[in-house]
Amino acid sequence: DSKPYQLHVLFLPYMAPGHMIPMVDMARLFARRGVKATIISTPLNAPVFSKAVERDGQQGHDISIRIIKFPSAEAGLPEGCENLSCINSWDMHANFLKAMSMLQQPIEQILEECHPHCLVADMTFTWATEVADKLRIPRLYFNGTCCFSMCVLDSLLRYEPHRRVDSDFEPFIVPGLPDQIKTTRQQLAEYLKQTTEHEFTKMVNQISESEARSYGVLVNSFHELEPAYCEHYRKVMGRKAWHIGPLSLYNRNIEDKAERGNTASIGKHECLRWLDLKKPNSVLYICFGSLLDFPAAQLREIALALEASGQNFIWVVRKGELRNHEDKEEWLPEGFERRMEGKGLIIRGWAPQLLILDHKAVGGFMTHCGWNSTLEAVTAGVPLVTWPLYAEQFDNEKLITDVLKIGIGVGALEWSRYAKKILVRKDDIEKAIVQLMVGEEAEEIRNRARELQEMARNAMEEGGSSYSDLTALLEELRALETSKRESAAH
Ligand code: UDP
């Protein structure tokens, strides 16, 4: 069949904000480039991005959402728990993964029915490569992080240097990488250190296998940010990768930016008017992503550090985090908000992060080094106070502080998820904040961040590296489909 056809790509995002947000941006970007894009989602996740998708549709882009049921009850989760952001323990986390695995059958059914030309699936869908093979279509893998962290993980799994040190605190070099990247066993994910067939360890191995067998990897990053690692991934690890970010830049109008990952409209965000009253680069923005639950005692240390630092701030505290201590407000030192009036603002719930980072009053971002937050800061030219906690965040921190040199660490030592203890003390937090916001070194760091901002924006413009990588990928997908049609015709 030599008739012209439209490339159809099906997108399968993981139900966690840090994975769903960039993949939805990606689907929208593909649609803008002429692809028919279908996103699979669930009843309670879809509303978070359906308005943006609708607006794209009105502009003539071919994009739609297919809703499937999420088996919360069947997997032992509370009713309405369809997103990782409702999860606060390892046990619930395991049930969430069980629910994810139960999605295979309904998704396979949709795939067979609409037979797309390509499947873009998040890393958590470990069965996706196999299913795509059955349909004879390429599966592209997405894990939401940078090339740097993928290279670090590969070296750790390949050489297991952590098994050759005597203590959890002894620094060692991750072998085989372009830079001398040092870490400790304490900073490695629990599931990497397990020797037994631990549930999460098994999962990591399955993920890494399905990545290796996939057609290639889509990376939300840009070549100029980590050139040596893009090279390493392609040449040394021998895998295909396309750098097509920063994907957040796809959001150009104010509604898109405000609603990204959220159903609230822009009218709700008085924090932007508050920022208008502040001097350039004078406000520190603090947010630890969409999943973290700090205990009350740790939140207090942060509050005390903010007050002592003397800096203006916007601090986002998650609703899930507050659930345990909201009524008593025991997480805030006595009279804190009264004393901080005009100086600091606490947002309880979801913040319009892209708009805050883009505001000229914001001069620093204290982050857990989630990859989206990191890249959004780079894209806005904002330097970072780094406080990694779990997932691959310690790797991302090393990219920020040691390779790119656009941040100062609070000195986080220990990988920790669902922990209930104080991890970093007030004095260390305060010291890092002041070092990033004030003085000569701060100015140098800010200048480097600005240079990267410029490169990030150029990468996404027509002719830029990310734009061209996506062009190359779309051409390759079309060529694959065309040759399939030709061989079927003969
Ligand atoms: N985010 C936001 N407002 C919030 C918290 C998070 O817009 O109050 C967005 C943030 O801009 C980013 C994503 O949620 O796009 C968080 O992803 P990241 O990889 O930084 O961290 P994770 O939540 O996966 O730990």
TrEMBL record:
Name the domain of life this protein comes from.
Eukaryota
Q: What organism, scientifically named, is this protein from?
A: Populus tomentosa
Q: Name one Pfam family in it.
A: UDPGT
The record's similarity note reads: Belongs to the UDP-glycosyltransferase family.
Q: In which pathway does it act?
A: Pigment biosynthesis; anthocyanin biosynthesis
Assigned keywords, A-Z:
Glycosyltransferase, Transferase
Question: What Enzyme Commission number does this protein have?
Answer: 2.4.1.-
| GO MF, one example | anthocyanidin 3-O-glucosyltransferase activity
Recorded hits in InterPro entries, A to Z, give: UDP_glucos_trans, UDP_glycos_trans_CS
Know the name of this protein? Answer: Glycosyltransferase
According to UniProt, the reaction catalysed is: an anthocyanidin + UDP-alpha-D-glucose + H(+) = an anthocyanidin 3-O-beta-D-glucoside + UDP
